[in-house]
Amino acid sequence: MTIKTLLILMALLVGGCTTKTGSYSYQSTRPSQKYPSQHLAMSSSTVYKQNGDLQATMRPYTVMGKEYYPTVVSVGDTFSGRASWYGPDFHGKSTSNGERYDMYAMTAAHKTLPMNTVVRVTNTENNAHTVVRINDRGPFVENRIIDLSYAAAQAIGVDKKGTAPVVIEVLGFEPGSMRTIDMASLAKGSKQSVLSSFFVQIGSFERFEGAMATKQKYASYNGYSAIIKDTEYNNKRLFRVWLGGFKSEAEARDFISRSHFEGSFIIRE
User: Fold this and answer.
1) pLDDT tens across 45-57, in order?
2) Do 153 and 117 contact (CB within 8 A), yes or no?
3) Residue 195: which residues within 8 A CB-CB, separation 6 or more?
């Protein structure tokens, strides 16, 4: 790594929870026959209460005054930028997801990809490529897209120059912290990260008219859109108003912490 990179990392390591990337803070149905179908969206859902558990690695976090939001990705998504690497100074220390960093394992750090995302990294200078699993956050250096382990960097020649232009392709999602990547099971697994289809409930009404008024008021609110869900709870019919358009649970949770909707909570379909 460059001297500039080392100075930035040393500054990040002062105070807070210490990881390879330094200190950061977390920010914290039944179909209707009576009402017009174009106003209603109906499907089964799982409710995540506002105070429910959320993996720490999927919450928004702040480094050097900038907020980062872990987000949705799908198999086949590609990204380009410059790769760097980290090695002996961090070997054995905790990564952002709680694992021990092993410079000889095929892992990497990324600012927003979900943990255990498996990606192919191709060095566009020599066309060498390798496959790594994301288990850390970073690099927090301008124009850097991924921080490779020493072994991964060595495999594609990034270790020689310190950085290199790369293309990253999402291959899949490992179910757990695997030291080796099982490509066969990966191919059979989910084609999209688990962070998808999140909503925030902003109201619940016994009368459709109340739900409709709320939906119209917040039809387009700060880039999010409102829908009505026709549901049943404790043998009582309720019309719930949800805001949609959130890229991840982290983004929805951050919205709740900043909004004025009392009692709002996250719902994931």
Assistant:
1) 333 333 333 344 5
2) no
3) 58, 70, 71, 72, 114, 247, 248, 249, 250
Q: Which of 148, 40, 131 is nearest to 86 (CA)?
A: 148
Start-to-end CA span in the chain (Å): 43
Q: Return the number of other C-beta atoms located less than 10 Å from residue 59's C-beta.
A: 20
Task: Please give the C-alpha separations between residue 126 and each of 147, 158, 163, 166, in angstroms, as whole numbers.
Answer: 18, 10, 13, 10
Q: Is omega for the bond preceding 139 within 30 degrees of 0, making it cis?
A: yes
Task: Pick left, alpha or beta for residue 189 (phi over 0 → left; psi -120 to 50 → alpha; otherwise beta).
Answer: beta
Number of H helices, E strands in the chain: 6, 15
Q: Read off the pLDDT of residues 224-247 as tens digits, 9 standing for 90 and up.
A: 888 888 887 778 888 889 998 887
- Cα–Cα distance for residue pair 141/22, rounded to 1 Å: 13
Other Cβ atoms closer than 10 A to 245: 17
d(CA 193, CA 178): 17
pTM of the model: 0.54
Contact between 29 and 68 (Cβ < 8 Å):
no
| Rounded-to-5 percentages of helix, strand, coil across the chain | 20, 35, 45
* DSSP-assigned letters across all residues of 131-157: EEEEEE----STTEEEEEEHHHHHHHT
Spatial separation of the C-alpha atoms in residues 103 and 210, rounded to whole Å = 58
- Percent of all residues in the chain with a pLDDT value above 70, rounded to a whole number: 68
